[in-house]
Amino acid sequence: MLGAPAAMAAAMGMGDEPPSTSSEVKGVAFRLLTTLPRAPRAVEGADECSQLVVKPASEAGRVVAERGWAVTGEAKLGTSLRAVSFAGGFEPGTSGTCLVNDGNVGVFDGGKLVALLYAEKGSKQSLGRVQALEGGGVRVIDGDYLATPIGDIRSIDDYKFEFNPVAASDGVCGGRAKVPNINNMPIDKARAALKANGWEPVPSSEQDRTDSRVAELVKLGVIEAEACSGTGLGYCSYNYRGEAGTLSVTTAGDNDYPSVSDYDVKCN
Fold first, then answer.
1. What percentage of the chain exceeds 70 in pLDDT?
2. Which end is more exposed in the chain, N or C (fewer Cβ atoms within 10 Å of the end residue's Cβ)?
3. Residue 193 · residue 263 · CB < 8 Å
4. Most distant CA pair in the chain: distance in Å?
5. Pairing mode, if any, of strands 112-119 and 129-132?
6. Which domain of life does this protein belong to (predicted)?
7. Would you put residue 15 in left (φ > 0), alpha (ψ -120 to 50) or beta?
8. What is the mean pLDDT of residues 148-166?
9. DSSP characters over 59-71
């Protein structure tokens, strides 16, 4: 009788080469799995946290939804696979934030589940959503109220999957530029890392600097501070320019140098 990996390989026409998974992120497990369990209960909090729920965009996403889970993201993995993130519930927080409960990421071949990424029992980790990376990888964002990346899924050959800590840098704009890993980094250190990779700060306007929080950051040398929220998680935004496009950065917190919570690149 074939073992599970060998049976999966045979079913997928892979000969004797079995699929495999590995996780280098503490508290997160990556396992081969061919049957997606049904959600243990009705999804709670989906209406209050509708900004985190997406309409299934693929056969894999529809399979997840049909099993009673809320789909939170989809991304292509490698050349032919798809990663789908999904949750069993949500808890609304302040400033439009939400906590993701029972978050998972499934790797699918068409509508067939191949592997499952999930937080181990007792782990403080949580899985929120996925986003595509250039080169065929998938980034996993956690499910905390202030969501930040926790790791990257890579497909090494077909059906050999790795979940590793966030890469030191991301290639963007067709490889014409790189963005270093500035997640959770204080903005003074983040801007230095960005400048070292060709991203120059775009000075904010005098009008922007009438905001007291923006003015404080500018006095500390963060001349690209553009706008800040006076309530909730204290979000602030910053802009940078490079040869390949523009980069917007968001920080959260009320420290002198708040930490990066997100960034977005727009290519020329």
1. 94
2. N
3. no
4. 73
5. unpaired
6. Bacteria
7. left
8. 93
9. HHHHHHHHTTPEE
> What does the domain layout of the chain look like in residue ranges?
4-167, 171-267
CB 67 within 8 A of CB 87: no
Q: What is the predicted pLDDT for the residue at 15?
A: 47
Condensed to tens digits (0 to 9), the pLDDT of residues 211-248 reads 999 999 999 999 999 999 977 889 999 999 999 999 99
Compute the distance between CA of residue 210 and CA of residue 203 in angstroms, rounded to an integer: 14
Q: What residue type is assigned to position 108 of the chain?
A: F
Whether the full predicted model's pTM is greater than 0.70, yes or no, is yes
What pLDDT does 16 receive? 54
Q: What per-residue confidence (pLDDT) applies to 156?
A: 84
Torsion angles phi and psi, residue 179, rounded to 5: -115, 120
> DSSP states of the chain as a string?
---HHHHHHHHTT-TT---EEEE-STTEEEEE-SSPPPPSSPPBSTTTTGGG-----SHHHHHHHHTTPEEEEEEEETTTEEEEEEESEEEE-GGG-EEEES-EEEEEETTEEEEEEEEPTT-S----EEEE-TTS-EEEE--SSS--EEEEEEE-STTEEEEESPPSEEEETTTTEEEE--TT-BHHHHHHHHHHTT-EE-PPPTTGGGSHHHHHHHHTT-TTEEEE-SSTT--EEEEEE-SSEEEEEEEESSSSSPEEEEEEEEE-
- Among all chains, which residue has been given the structure tokens 């005098």? 206
The CA distance from 265 to 268, in Å, is: 10
∠ CA 210-193-246, nearest 5°, is: 60
